[in-house]
Amino acid sequence: MLHIKCPYCGMRSQNEFSYGGDASVKRPELNKEISDEEWDNFVYNRKSLRGKHLELWQHLSGCRQWIKVERDTATHEIFNTYKADEEIS
Amino acid sequence: MTQKFRLENVGLINRNKKLSFKFNGKIYFGYEGDTLASALIANGVHLVGRSFKYHRPRGFFGAGVDEPYAIVQLYRNNETEPNIKATEQELFEGLEAKSVNCWPSVNFDIGAINNFLKIFLPAGFYYKTFMWPKSFWYRVYEPFIRKAAGLGVASTKHDKERYEHKYEYCDLLIAGSGPSGLASAYAAAKNGARVILAEDKPRFGGSLLTSDVNIGNQSGEDWANSIISELKEMPNVVVKNRSQVFGYYDHNMLVMSEKVSDHLPKTKKYHPKQRLWHIRAKEVLISSGSIERPLVFGNNDTPGVMLSSAAKEYLKVYGVLVGKNPLVFTNNDSGYETAIEFKKNGINPIILDSRVNPQSEIIDEAISLGIKIKFSYVVVAAHGYKKVSSADIAKISDNKKELGTVENMKCDCICVSGFWTPTIHLASQSGNKTKFNEEIDAFVPGTSKQNETTLGSANGIFTLEETLKDSFTAGQDLSKKITNNDNKISFPNVVEKKSSQHDKFWCVPLPKGKSYKRFLDFQNDVAVSDIEIALKEGYRSIEHVKRYTTLGMATDQGKTSNLNGLQLVSDIENKVVPAVGHTTFRPPYTPISIGAIVGREVGKHSKPTRKSPMHSWHEKNNAVFVDAGVWLRPRYYKQGNETLFEASKREAKNVRTNVGVCDVTTLGKIDIKGPDAAELLNRVYTNAWLKLPVGKARYGVMLREDGIIMDDGTTTRISENHYHMTTTTAQAANVLSHLEYYLQLVWPELNVNVVSTTEQWAGAAIAGPKSRKLLEKLFPNNDVSNDGLPFMGYMESDLFGVKARIFRISFSGELAYEVNVESDNGQFMWEKIIELGQEFQVQPYGTEALSTLRIEMGHVAGSELDGRTISYDTSLEGLISKKKDFIGKRSLNREAFTSSDRQKIVGVVPLDKKTSIPEGSHLVKDAKAPLPNKKLGHISASCWSVEHDNPFSLAILKDGKNMIGEKLFVMSPLKNKVIPVEIVSSHYVDPKGERVRS
Predict the structure, then answer these.
(1) Nearest-10 Cα torsion for B766, B771, B772, B778
(2) Do A1 and B249 touch (CB under 8 A)?
(3) DSSP B793
(4) Taking CB atoms and an 8 Å cut-off, how many pairs form between chains A and B?
(5) Beta carbons of B705 and A75 less than 8 Å apart
(6) What is the pLDDT of residue B47?
(7) Cβ-count burial B606-635 (b if 16+ within 10 Å, e if not)
(8) Is the distance from CB of B937 to CB of B923 less than 8 angstroms?
(9) Residue B247: pLDDT above 60?
(10) Residue B704 phi, psi (nearest 5)
C-alpha cells in the first residue's frame, strides 16, 4: 500500500485517497470551438506511461483536497506531491 | 504409549507438563513445548501423509516453515482447519490431527497405485491426459482428481473465531530473531529507535538454539535469552513470537501474521485467534536466516530422509531422536554438527561426505569423537516403504560422474545436508534484484530498492562473528540516522568452529539399470525426470518449467526445492544458474488463513450500516428492510400475512388515492454556497440555472465529460448565494467528488463551497391527492395552497417549534411535498405526519412502492441511468440547453449519440395483461428466430401498475421513438420465459403531468 504525503495533512495511507488520473490533462475552455480530435484527446486518450507520471489523487477520507502526485508507475516511487494550484518545477 | 525416541535431560520442552493428543484416531503423549511433529517423532511415528501425485508415503522433512510433507488437518475446539504444518503446530492438551491426501487411510491408500503407474504420470500429465474427451472432464476426471488430491478440507461451518487487524508504525522492523535479528534489534533499541522484532517460532534465538557456539562467555542460547529479556523490558521495543512477516509491499509496508491462540486448546475470552499486523517501517532488517538444501538421490522422499538441520533441531530443542541408527549424507560441514549431537547422546551415526578430503575444526572434532566418516561417498538410493530401513551407498568418482560398487547399509534415517539457501523472499518482494553468489551456489539480495537491509545467513554470511558484526553495525547505523543517538555497544567475544568449503555436488547419478525416482520438489512430487521431460518438450523459461511441472508451487512455494530445480535446468541447458534465473517470490511467504486477512470485517461488520433518524419507528411498525448502498431502507411495511407484492401494491395504491409518507433521508444532499454558485450549477447541469429565483427548485441532469448521464436530482435556491442540491442515494459521494474536482482543479476562479449535508437533514416525502390537506395540518401558519406553494416551490417553516424546509417536488407523480428537518428532529417530524395524517388515511410506504410509483410515471432512476445512457435515451433531451456550454456537452454530437434510430425509453405491457416481466430480459422481434437472436433492447425496471392493475415495465429500446404500438417479445433465458408484449409510452400514468401541478 502506498504512503502518500498529502500537502495539507502529511503522510497518509493510500486507502484514504482515490485516484484521479493524469494531472497533465487540461480541460478545454468552455464555449470554445475545438476539433473532435482535441476533445477525444481530453476525454479518452491517455499515454499510460511507464515511469514518472504526474497524477491526481483526492484525499477523500481526509481533507477532500485534490492533489498532484509525481509517481513512478513502474516502481511506485513517489518523488513529490503538490497542492492543486502549486507551481511544479 | 511410551515416547521411545525421547532423550532424557535434553531439549527446551517442559517435562513437568505432559500432554495427550490424537493423531489419526490414536492417542499419544508429548510435552508442553513440543510441536505436533516432535511429539509424533518422539513416539516413533514417521508416516504422516501421502504425496500429492503418486500418493507415496510421507514423513517429516524439516522442523519448521520449510516443511513440504507433514501437512495435517487440525481439529481444535470443535473446529477444523486444513493445511497445518505439523512442524509448526505447537502441541496442546487434547489436540487432534489427521493425515490429508490419503484415502481411505494413510497406511492403505488407493491413490498409491499412481506410484506403480508413474510412467503414466510424468510432467504435464494432467494437461495431456485429462483433456480428452471433453465431456469426461466434469463427469469423470475432475471428481476423481478432487477426491484423490488436495491438501485437506476447509470447514463448511461459520468460523466463530475472532481475527484482528492492527496498524503499526516503527523505525526498524526486524524479521527473524536469530543472531542477526537479536544483534541489530539490540543495537537499534539502545539508540532509542522504535523497534519491532518478529519471530515466527515460539522460541527466540533461531540458529543459536541449536548451534554449539559461545558469545560473550555464554552459550548461544543463554546469550539469546539475555538479549530478549533485556529487549522485552525496553519501552521502545515490541518483541513478538509466533509472528511471521510474510509480505513486503510498497513504501516499506510489511504484513505480519501473529498466531495469538493457535497454540492453545481454545482461544481465551476477548482474545483473537490471530492478528494481522500492517506495519509501516522506516527501515527493515531482514534476518530471516537460511534453509538447508536437500541432496538428490534415489527415493529421497522416503519417510526418515530429512534435513540434517531438522534432525539437529529435534534433538536439541525437543530432546527427540529422529532415528537410532542414523546415516548423515552431506556435502559440507553442517552434517557433521548433526552427527556430533547424535554422538554426544550415545548414538553412533555414520557420515557420508561427497567431498574428497575436506579439513576443518568440525571434521577434526567428529573424528576425535570416533564418528565413522566415509569421504567421497554418496547415498545412491533409500530403501524401505513407510520408513527408511537401509540405504544403497557407493563411492563416487572425483568428477562426480561415476559410481563405484553399490553396497547396502542398514539405517533408520538419512540426514541430508546440501549446504544452505538464504531466505531472500522478503528482500525479493521489496523489489530487490537478487544476485547469484557463486561461493555459496545460491541467490542473495543485491541492491536494495526500498529501505531494506538483509543480514546474516539470509545475506549469505555463514559465520557467526561476521554476522554479529554486520548486524550490530546495521542496527546502530540505521537507528542513528533516525534518532541521532550514538550509543556504542561493545562487541562480545565470539567462539565458533571454522567450516571448510562445501561441495558443489548435489545430485547423485543413477546407477546403471536403475530408474529410482529422485525428487526435487517433495510437496508436488516433481522428480529429476520431470524436469528433463519438460526441457525435452521445449520448455525453456524457468517460469514455464515451473508451471508445466509444478516445481516450486503449492503451499511450501519451493522453499527446499527451488535451487536444486534451477541447478538441474542449468546443468541440462549447459548454462550457469544466474542465466536461468529464479521464479518470482510473491507474498505470502507462508500460507495465511483467510480469517486473518478478513479480520473483523465479517457479517454486519463487512460494511458500515447507515440508518435514518426514523429507523426505530420503521422497526416498530414492521418494516422489512433492504440494503440501499450502505443505508438500510424500509422496503415495505408488513401488515398481517402480506407478501412483498401485496404490501407494496397496497402502499402504492394508497399514495394514488389518499396520501403516503416515505423516508427519503438517504437522498444525497449537498449544500452549495458562494457568489458563483449559480454559475457552477449552470456548468454542471445540462439545463439553465442562472435565472432560478430564490425559493424555487429545479430538476437537473448532470453528465460526465463523455456525455453519459452521471446523476439527476433537484436543486433549490435557498437564498441569493445558497443552494441545496439533492442527488440519488447511490451517487451522493461521487457527485460531491465531481463538484470538488471542478472547483479545485478546473475552475478554481469560481467562488463556491460545497459540503455534504446528507446526514444533517432528515427527509420525508408526503405524496398523494390528500397531501396538501395533511400539510395544512402540519403547518397551520403557512399558506401551502397551489398559489402559496406552487409546484417546484420552496418555503421555510416551523413544524410545532422545529425548523423545517418544505419543497414541493414529486417523484411519485402525485401532488407531493418533501419536508426536511434537522436529523435530531426526524423522528418527531415523522410521528407528527403519521399522527395528523390519520384522518387522511396516511400510510408509510417503502422503496418497493416508491419504485412502482416512479416506474408507472416513467420517471428514470438508477436502473435507467446505468452509465450507458444519454439524455436522449431517457427522454431528458428537453433539458439540454442550446445556449450555454456544460460538462459533457461537446460529446453529445458524436455520431452514435445523434443517430436517428438511437435507443430510447419506452413502456412495455404484456399482451395478456397478467404475466410479470423479469427485469433484465431482452426485447426481440421474433421469439423463434435462430440464435443469436438480435436484441433490440432490455427491460430496465418492472412493476405492477396500481393505476391500471396490470404489469408494466420500462425498457431501453432501439429506435424506441418509432416503436410505440409495436408488438415484440420479451425473452428471459434465465427465467425461461417468452412473453408477447406491446410497446407503449413510458408515461403510463398522467402523461400530461397534471397531478403534480394540481
Answers:
(1) -60
(2) yes
(3) B
(4) 50
(5) no
(6) 92
(7) eeeebebbbbebbeeeebebeebbebbbbb
(8) yes
(9) yes
(10) -85, 170
B449 CB within 8 Å of a chain A CB: yes
- Mean pLDDT lowest among B536-540, B771-775, B933-937: B536-540
Amino acid at B343: K
Cell of B938: 432490455
DSSP B510: P
Core vs surface per residue B769-791: b (16+ CB within 10 A) or e = bbbbbbbeebbeebebeeeebeb
According to DSSP, the residues that pair with B598 across neighbouring strands are: none
> Cell digits for B150?
488436495
Among all chains, which residue has been given the C-alpha cell 418509432?
Answer: B962
ipTM (interface pTM): 0.98
Instruction: Cell 511544479: give the residue.
Output: A88
Q: What is the pLDDT of residue B679?
A: 98
- Here the cell at position A33 is 470551438
Omega prior to B104 cis, within 30 of 0: yes
Q: Which of B253, B740, B885 sits opposite A1 (nearest CB)?
A: B253
What contacts B708, CB < 8 A, 6 or more positions away?
B867, B868, B869, B870, B888
Q: Cell numbers for B100, please give them.
A: 490429508
User: Count H helices, E strands: chain B?
Assistant: 25, 50
Please give the domain boundaries of chain B with CATH numbers for all domains: 14-129 (3.10.20.440), 163-290+422-495 (3.50.50.60), 294-418+501-513 (3.50.50.60), 524-557+561-592 (no CATH), 606-666+761-859 (3.30.1360.120), 667-757+865-890 (3.30.70.1400), 900-990 (2.40.30.110)
B807 to each of B131, B490, B544, B810, how far by Cα in Å? 67, 79, 66, 9
Cβ neighbours for B789, distance < 8 A, ≥ 6 positions apart = B782, B783, B795, B806, B808, B817
**pLDDT for B607:** 84
- Tens of pLDDT, residue by residue over B845-899, are 999 999 999 999 999 999 999 999 999 999 999 999 999 999 999 999 999 999 9
Please state which CATH class domain A3-27+34-83 belongs to. alpha beta
Name the strand (E) or helix (H) holding B587.
none
Which of B250, B278, B747, B753 to mutate to probe the A interface, most A CBs <10 Å? B250
pLDDT band, very low/low/confident/very high, at B562 (cuts 50, 70, 90)? confident
Strands B274-286 and B163-175: parallel
Q: The cell 487540461 sits on which residue?
A: A26
Cα–Cα distance measured from residue B583 to residue B591, given in angstroms and rounded to the nearest whole number: 18
Please name every residue paired with B937 in a beta bridge, in sequence order, or none if there are none.
B923, B957
Q: How far apart are CA B216 and CA B465, in angstroms?
A: 11
B950-974 residue pLDDT tens: 999 999 999 999 999 999 999 998 8
Alpha-carbon span B165 to B83, nearest angstrom: 22
SS3 category, A72: strand
Which residues contact residue B391 at a Cβ distance below 8 angstroms, ignoring those fewer than 6 apart?
B327, B379, B380, B381, B382, B383, B408, B409, B411, B414
Smallest Cβ–Cβ distance between A39 and the set B683, B885, B890 belongs to B890
Taking Cα atoms as reference points, which of B938, B930, B942 lies closest to residue B970?
A: B938
Residue B62: name the closest of B48, B80, B82, B76 by CA: B48
Please state, in angstroms and rounded to a whole number, the distance separating the CA atoms of residues B610 and B759.
Answer: 10
Give the best residue of A64, A71, A88 to mutate against chain B (max B CB count within 10 A). Answer: A64
Query: Is B134 buried (19+), middle (13-18) or exposed (0-12) by CB count in 10 A?
Result: exposed
Q: 425498457: which residue's cell? A: B955
